[in-house]
Every structure is written in C-alpha cells, then in structure tokens.
Specification:
- The chain is mainly α.
- The chain has ten helices and no strands.
- It folds into two domains: 62 residues, no CATH class; 75 residues.
Length: 167
C-alpha cells in the first residue's frame, strides 16, 4: 500500500499526527529514520522553514523531535484556545452538533463537561436552549447535541411563505 500523508494541518497538528502515524502503521514504516525521512519529504516549504533548526542538526534529526516541534510551534496556546472558545466561536451555518465538537476540540480535556455544556448552550438559539435545559438531567451532552441537530434540521427546512395581496 502506498503511503498517503495529507497536507500538514496547521490548525490541528495533533490530529495530523494521528493520521500520519496510522499511515506509517498501515505501510509498516516503523523506524524513526524512515518516519523522519518520509515526513520531511512531504511537508510544505513554509512548514519546513518553521522547523529548520530541528531538521538541520544531526542530534535532533529524529521523528520524535520533529513531531514535538511541529506540535509545539503550530498548536494554539491555552490563552488563544480560551479566547477563541469564549469570544469567537459562533454557530453560523453549522449544526449544533458541529458547534459542540468545535467547542470540545478547543476546550480540550482540561475543561469540565459542565463548562463545555454551558458555553455551547449560550451559543444556541433561545428556543433550543430552553428545550435542552429541560432535557439536561436525563440526556448526556452528546444526546443533547443529537436533539439540537434534529431541531436545527426541522427549523432549517421550514420555509416561510409570504403572499402579496393586491388591493
């Protein structure tokens, strides 16, 4: 099987390495040297520039060093994630479930579920908030997201008809 490493995900380097390491496993690429070589051969020039100090020094020319440097240099800081979480996360055209997943990704594992739930609920329309509040004790957060997605689908597919009446 051919190695299929995607373009580097600058906004989500951790997920990128989950994909890359799955590919390495499928293609039976196990040695650090092979992984380092395969990865550097596929990274874009601007990404390589960010880690040129790592790839140029013989003592740091390892896959583990390269991976750590890429994750550190391209991951958002805790402050950036928190700012985005609190200020810039909006539902837009996305479903409530998609919004929840973005909030969960930004929050990471450090933020308790009740905080994530509260942040998510505040971003939803008032009607959805009220219905989900009533269900909050009997449904998990993922189940609430499913209910919210169904409400979103129903409200999105409803079309208002306007009639013009001539006098």
């Amino acid at each position: 099987m051919a190695l299929a490493i995607p373009k580097f995900l600058k906004m989500d380097p951790v997920t990128y390495f989950v994909i890359v390491e799955s590919q390495f496993s499928v293609c039976n690429i196990m040695s650090d040297e092979q992984r380092f070589t395969q990865l550097t051969a596929r990274l874009e020039a601007d990404v390589l520039e960010e880690v040129s100090d790592v790839i140029r020094k013989p003592e740091t020319r390892t896959y583990a060093s390269l991976k750590a440097a890429l994750i550190k240099r391209f991951s958002q800081s805790d402050e950036e994630r928190l700012s985005k979480l609190l200020e810039h996360t909006e539902a837009g055209d996305r479903s409530p479930g998609q919004l929840l997943r973005e909030i969960q990704n930004l929050a990471g594992s450090d933020v308790p579920e009740n905080i994530v739930r509260g942040l998510w609920m505040k971003k939803l329309p008032t009607m959805s908030q009220q219905m989900l509040q009533a269900l909050s004790t009997s449904l998990s957060l993922s189940q609430q997201a499913e209910v919210a997605d169904k409400m979103h689908t129903v409200s999105s597919s409803s079309v208002s008809h306007v009639s013009i009446v001539d006098n």
